[in-house]
């Protein structure tokens, strides 16, 4: 049976609790004064003011989140846009969860922000701590509009930590878009075949290996004709006859 541990020195306990409270308050105060609070609560003017004062768009709070993480998750398009225009790193991942702004926007179904982040070169193939891409997160949230934005630009063969691929998760969460997904999966499967064909086909559309073999055979035949004069009485044969006579 567990015992409760009482503190014999009440002053020490109070001091420890007081220090924890002060520490939490300082962190909260820093957050509220910083760009993160303004981004989270859609205070566009405050964000602009802080950026003009030289606050970095990539500043991280105590948990490792940037203002873009907060704005993307909460659906604040204008703030996301101004942060990106002020060089916010679009692919920054959080310390613990390894989530990007794209992950956070996707899981909340913010399709306009997902589109904006992709325009600023967000990488849809980055995975969070659970192995999820932004597409995995959108499927889990059953956000069809976001899924349709991410499917064309995501590596559809990536697995999450549960070894689920995109097709399996789509069947489970968003079966209505299976046909849409299949179109891009077929394209992805066809791509390696195109590359092989391109590597083995010349500009006339002929198989390079067959064409090279045919050319080699043609060269051999031409050399034989030159040597034989086309009928067996060529220069090479005459020389050989003379050599034999001598």
Automatic annotation (TrEMBL):
<feature type="repeat" description="ANK">
    <location>
        <begin position="97"/>
        <end position="129"/>
    </location>
</feature>
<feature type="repeat" description="ANK">
    <location>
        <begin position="63"/>
        <end position="95"/>
    </location>
</feature>
<keyword id="KW-0677">Repeat</keyword>
<dbReference type="Pfam" id="PF12796">
    <property type="entry name" value="Ank_2"/>
</dbReference>
<dbReference type="InterPro" id="IPR036770">
    <property type="entry name" value="Ankyrin_rpt-contain_sf"/>
</dbReference>
<dbReference type="InterPro" id="IPR002110">
    <property type="entry name" value="Ankyrin_rpt"/>
</dbReference>
<keyword id="KW-0040">ANK repeat</keyword>
<protein>
    <submittedName>
        <fullName>Ankyrin repeat domain-containing protein 39</fullName>
    </submittedName>
</protein>
<feature type="region of interest" description="Disordered">
    <location>
        <begin position="214"/>
        <end position="234"/>
    </location>
</feature>
